Automatic annotation (TrEMBL):
This is Nicotinate-nucleotide--dimethylbenzimidazole phosphoribosyltransferase. Belongs to the CobT family. It is an enzyme of class 2 (transferase). It catalyses: 5,6-dimethylbenzimidazole + nicotinate beta-D-ribonucleotide = alpha-ribazole 5'-phosphate + nicotinate + H(+).
Length: 347
C-alpha cells in the first residue's frame, strides 16, 4: 500500500498571521470566517502573503453494483450520460467552474460504460466497470482499492506540476449515497438510520428499503478491518480515487476543497489513513443530504455555505471558491491601521 508523507502544518507563523489580520482596517475579528480561512491558508503555504494558483476541480465518476437493490431514484446510465454532459460543458459544475476561472477535469474512475477513445477533457482511469453489489460481497478487491489510490495520486501529481495549489473534489455516480452512508456509519460510529437519506430523491418507502439494505450489508463489517478494507467493502471506484487524490494533494501541500456528502465520506477514509489531511482541507458546504450534517458534526468542522444544495459534482466546492479568494485577497490587499492612518481600538 502506498504510504503518504503528510506533514501536519507548521503553526509557527500563526502568531504573525494573526497579527497581520488584526492590523487590518477593521474592528478586531470583523471578517469572521474569512479570517480563519486566511490563517489556515497562510499556515498551509507558510507565508504572510499566500496566493491561489491554477485552481482545479476534479469530478471522479463511477458506478455502483448496489443499484441492483433499487436504492436510487435514477437509472445507472445517468452516470455515463452525465460524464458526457460534463465533457460537453453542460452541467452545473461546468457553469460554476467557468464562472470562477477553475479548470475542470473529469475522471472515469469506474463507470459502467465504454467511452470512445480520445474524448477531450476525460481522464481515462477506469479500475472496473462499476463495483459489485456490496450486499453480496465486497464492492471491490483490496487490490482495486489500492490501484484507485495509487493511480489518482499520479493524476494529482501531474496537476500540481502545472502550478495548481488549490484543488476541489467532486463525484458523479448513481447509487453512491448508499456507499457513502455505509462508510459514514462505520467511520463515524453513527446508526445507519441517521446516515441514510434521499440521495437523488427517493420516496419514503424507498428510503426505508435503502436503510434496510445498508443495515444488512454492514453485517459484513469486521471490526478488525483497516480503512482500506472498509473502503473496498463498501466504497466505490470514484470514492476510492478521491481518497488517493486527497492524500496526495495534502502531501504536496495543496489546499483541498471538500464538497458534499459523498466527497466527505471519501475524506473520512483519507483522514482515517492520515489524520494530517485535515490541516489542508476546507469544508465548503453543508449538503441537504440528511447524513451530511451529522457527518460534519462528527468531524467537528463547520462548512462555509449552507445553500440547500445536494447535487455533488463538486458544485459546493466551486461555489465556495470565491469566498476562499476573498480570504486571500483581504490578507494581501487591505491596508493596515498604520498604512492608512486609521486609529486603532481604544485601549
Ligand atoms: O454531494 C452531495 O451531497 C449529494 C447528495 C445527494 C446526491 N448526490 C449526487 O447524486 C448521485 C447519488 O445519488 P443516489 O440517490 O443515486 O445515491 C451522485 O451522482 C451524487 O453526485 C450528491
Ligand atoms: C441528472 C443528475 C445529475 C447529477 N449530478 C450529480 N449527480 C447527479 C444525479 C442526477 C440524476
Amino acid at each position: 500500500m502506498k504510504k503518504f508523507k503528510i506533514k501536519p502544518v507548521n503553526t509557527s507563523l500563526e502568531q504573525s498571521l494573526k497579527r497581520k489580520i488584526d492590523q487590518k482596517t477593521k474592528p478586531l475579528g470583523a471578517l469572521g470566517r474569512l479570517e480563519e480561512l486566511a490563517l489556515q491558508i497562510g499556515t498551509i503555504q507558510q507565508t504572510l502573503t499566500p496566493s491561489l494558483s491554477n485552481p482545479h476541480i476534479l469530478v471522479f465518476a463511477g458506478d455502483h453494483g448496489i443499484v441492483e437493490e433499487g436504492v436510487s431514484a435514477y437509472p445507472q446510465e445517468v452516470t455515463w450520460q452525465m460524464v458526457m454532459n460534463f465533457i460537453q460543458g453542460g452541467a452545473a459544475i461546468n457553469v460554476f467552474c467557468k464562472q470562477h476561472g477553475i479548470t475542470l477535469n473529469v475522471v472515469d474512475a469506474g463507470v459502467n460504460y465504454d467511452f470512445p477513445e480520445g474524448l477531450e477533457g476525460l481522464v481515462y482511469n477506469k479500475v472496473g466497470k462499476g463495483t459489485r453489489n456490496f450486499l453480496k460481497g465486497q464492492a471491490m478487491t483490496i487490490e482495486q482499492a489500492q490501484r484507485c489510490i495509487e493511480s489518482s495520486s499520479e493524476i494529482i501529481k501531474s496537476i500540481h506540476a502545472k502550478g495548481c495549489n488549490i484543488i476541489g473534489f467532486g463525484e458523479m455516480g448513481i447509487g453512491n449515497t448508499t456507499s457513502a452512508s455505509a462508510l459514514m456509519s462505520l467511520f463515524c460510529d453513527i446508526p445507519v438510520a441517521q446516515c441514510v437519506g434521499l440521495g437523488t430523491g427517493l420516496n419514503e418507502s424507498a428510503l426505508q428499503h435503502k436503510t434496510a439494505v445498508v443495515t444488512e450489508a454492514l453485517k459484513q463489517y469486521n471490526k478488525h478491518d483497516t480503512p482500506i478494507a472498509m473502503l473496498a467493502t463498501f466504497g466505490g471506484f470514484e470514492i476510492a480515487q478521491i481518497v488517493g487524490a486527497m492524500l496526495q494533494a495534502a502531501e504536496l501541500g495543496m489546499i483541498i476543497l471538500v464538497d458534499g456528502f459523498i466527497t466527505t465520506s471519501a475524506y473520512l477514509v483519507a483522514q482515517a489513513i492520515e489524520p494530517a489531511v485535515r490541516d489542508y482541507s476546507i469544508f465548503c458546504h453543508q449538503s441537504q443530504e440528511k447524513g451530511h450534517t451529522l457527518m460534519l458534526q462528527a468531524l467537528d468542522v463547520k462548512p462555509l455555505l449552507d445553500l440547500n444544495m445536494r447535487l455533488g459534482e463538486g458544485t459546493g466546492a466551486a461555489v465556495a471558491y470565491p469566498i476562499v479568494q476573498s480570504a486571500v485577497a483581504f490578507l494581501n490587499q487591505m491596508a493596515s491601521f498604520e498604512s492608512a492612518s486609521v486609529s486603532g481600538k481604544k485601549a
